Amino acid sequence: MWIRFSAADRELKLGVIENMSMVIYSIRRLLAMFPLIIGISLLNFTIYALTPIDPVNSFVGLNEELNARRDEIEAAWGLNQPIFVRYIKWAVPVFTRLDFGKSWSTGQDVTQSLLPFVEKTIIMFGIAFLMTITVSTITGVVAAVNHNSFFDQTALFATLVGFSVPSFVLGLVIIVAWMSLTGEPPIYDGYKHRVLGDYLHVLAAATITLLVGGTAFLTRLVRSQLLDVLRQNYIKTARAKGLSERTVIYKHALRNALLPFVTVVALSLPGILGGSPIIEQVFNYPGVGRQIIVAALFFDMPIILAINMFFGTMSIIMLLVAEIIYAVVDPRVNF
Asked: 69 and 192: one domain?
């Protein structure tokens, strides 16, 4: 006896199969992250362990009492052991308990001391990233649809300026302009700024600085890709069939134009994260980027390794998200 399935049942079954394939694909890509993270940790540790800087000298300075205890300090930090042994003793607590050890300069627990700074960096980076994606996509689409218009030419000029100005210079300009308008510079003050509401103006100024550089490049990318897609034959065919211009642009053209956009955004994330220390230093913003500068001055290896692992893991996670989005957007990608 044959059982007939309706078209709705077949579509539902295909949808379930496609969703399961997507879940399996995501899990497979998630599992592939762990070897990358381990490789980053090994490379990170090896580079800093082989650096010809003596961390004990950075710590003891001219203190005669501490100089007399050099051997004791080296033994406490494990510097008298082979690099591979030091890596294993460092990596096992990191990957099992998220324990990065104690700071060499302060003696505090690295994980607990960095958590407040990580939270502030994630807030700043998350807001800047979402705003960059939104503003660049809207501006790029409007500029491409209104090609050679006044808005298009203005957007091109603005993106050229934004792309050319270094982020630290732009940050200083924003500080001066903000101070001239409000009378208070958007610089973080640990004594006055206790909660988020106290330093929202600092967060806004730092976010705008991050936003300008990223938006300038991505706006040009969306514009150029959409203009290229709008010249394709299938777009001309869609228009010839009588489809509305809104349907042609947003249903047929934009989806294909955003494929390179997703890839470039994913590849640019490590650069955006890597530039956060400069922005945080300009605005005195208490994020992990500023902490790595302070740690580098004292060659505080546990803190440097922890922050580098944070940046590396964040970059890998965002690349994974972008890869999954790419697989959803582009039907040619096999799960």
From this structure: no
In this structure, are 43 and 155 located in the same domain?
no
204-to-135, 173, 175, 197, 208 alpha-carbon distances in Å: 15, 14, 11, 11, 6
30 inside domain = yes
> Within a domain: residue 107?
no
Q: Which two tokens stand for residue 11?
A: 């579509």
Residue position matching structure tokens 């610089």 = 187
Average pLDDT over residues 281-295: 86
Per the structure, the count of domains in the chain is 2
Structure tokens at 19: 């969703």
Position 1 scores a pLDDT of 44
SS3 assignment, position 109: strand
Cβ neighbours of residue 210 under 8 Å, at least 6 residues apart?
124, 125, 128, 132, 167, 272, 275, 276, 279
Tell me whether residue 177 is in a domain.
yes
Bridge-partner residues for 109, per DSSP? 102
Within this chain, do residues 90 and 131 fall inside the same structural domain, yes or no? no
Range of the domain at 158: 121-329
**Spatial distance between the Cα atoms of 87 and 90, rounded to a whole number of angstroms:** 5
pLDDT at 42: 92
Distance CA 181, CA 137 (A): 30
168 is a domain residue = yes
Q: Model-level pTM?
A: 0.78
Residue type, position 236, single letter = K
For residues 212 and 163, give the distance between their C-alpha atoms in angstroms, rounded to a whole number: 8
